[in-house]
Amino acid sequence: MTVRGVSAAEIIASLERDGFQHIDEAPRTPGLRVGARVHNAGERYVEAYTHGTATVLAVLRRGTDEKPDLWEKQWGRPNVEVVVQRDRDEPPTCWADYGTHLASEQP
């Protein structure tokens, strides 16, 4: 979800309208939280693995452990979206948690 001219606040507001709620940390990825350094699963080079290519701005989940959403029931894992700011001169974007990996070095 990358749209030119769309702010992180607008992306987050759109996710909230879709029923997502802010969470402290992605349930299946300890350390995936606001401020973490991350890279997308497709970025497979040393710098990405070590230092990351983006910073997490928000972690949101639709559904809960007690009341999972349909996606979670179908795929067997929490429905988590991660809003990130890439290091490149790009607008913020949104990645699924399963495609977002922590950099080995964290701030």
Name its key features.
single chain, 107 residues, alpha+beta, six-stranded antiparallel beta sheet, 3 helices, 29% strand, globular
Molecular structure report:
The chain has three helices and six strands; from the N terminus they run αββαβαβββ. With 107 residues, it is α+β, with helices and mostly antiparallel strands. The protein has one domain. Strand 4 and strand 5 form a beta hairpin. The longest helix is centred in the first third of the chain and has 10 residues. The two termini are 26 Å apart.
Summarize the structure.
The protein is an alpha+beta fold.
Average pLDDT? 91
The tally of domains stands at 1
Low-pLDDT runs of 5+ residues are none
Element pattern in H and E:
HEEHEHEEE
Overall body shape: globular
Topology, pairings included?
Layout (H helix, E strand, L loop, with lengths): L7 H10 L2 E3 L14 E4 L5 H6 L2 E9 L7 H6 L3 E8 L6 E4 L3 E3 L5
Antiparallel strand pairs: 1-3, 2-3, 2-6, 3-4, 4-5
